[in-house]
UniProtKB/TrEMBL annotation:
It comes from Malus domestica. PANTHER family: ER DEGRADATION-ENHANCING ALPHA-MANNOSIDASE-LIKE PROTEIN 1 (PTHR45679:SF5), ER DEGRADATION-ENHANCING ALPHA-MANNOSIDASE-LIKE PROTEIN 2 (PTHR45679). Gene3D superfamilies: 1.50.10.10. GO terms for molecular function: calcium ion binding; mannosyl-oligosaccharide 1,2-alpha-mannosidase activity. This is Alpha-1,2-Mannosidase. It is found in: Endoplasmic reticulum. The lineage of its organism: Eukaryota, Viridiplantae, Streptophyta, Embryophyta, Tracheophyta. It comes from the Eukaryota. Keywords: Endoplasmic reticulum, Glycoprotein. GO terms for biological process: carbohydrate metabolic process; endoplasmic reticulum mannose trimming. InterPro entries: 6hp_glycosidase-like_sf, EDEM1/2/3, Glyco_hydro_47, Seven-hairpin_glycosidases.
Length: 121
């Protein structure tokens, strides 16, 4: 298509697996799920030497879009991520998962863990 971008978000691959898998099963034709799985396997083979995946890929060339790839973003991001994970473990880790913080001034916990917590954190 004219003026169509060839850039795609790698996070969309997970959505495609679910959507195309459901479509294939609903209509009884495995080709959609097979194509999505092929894309996932291809993407999975593109880990960087730092063991990271970028966020944006040019689907016509298979190259990472450098300005938004996130690969090589520097040690500051690793330090911040480590700090966040350490804080989560220190303040919210409970015996069977993680709790919400009800009040950040007292660090009082709430006996609740959102279902998306582990997927999006």
């Amino acid at each position: 298509m004219e003026n169509e971008t060839t850039e795609t978000s790698t996070s969309g691959c997970g959505s495609l697996i679910l959507g195309m898998g459901a479509l294939s099963r609903l209509i009884g034709d495995p080709k959609y799920e097979s194509a999505a799985l092929c894309a996932l396997r291809e993407l999975w083979g593109m880990w960087s030497s730092l063991n990271l995946l970028g966020t944006t890929l040019d689907i016509s060339t298979g190259e990472w879009i450098v300005y938004s790839s996130g690969i090589g973003a520097g040690p500051w991001y690793i330090e911040v991520g480590q700090s966040i994970l350490n804080s989560l473990n220190l303040y919210t880790k409970v015996e069977r998962g993680f709790a919400n913080i009800r009040d950040v001034t007292t660090m009082q916990l709430e006996d609740h863990q959102h279902s998306f917590f582990l997927a999006e954190t």
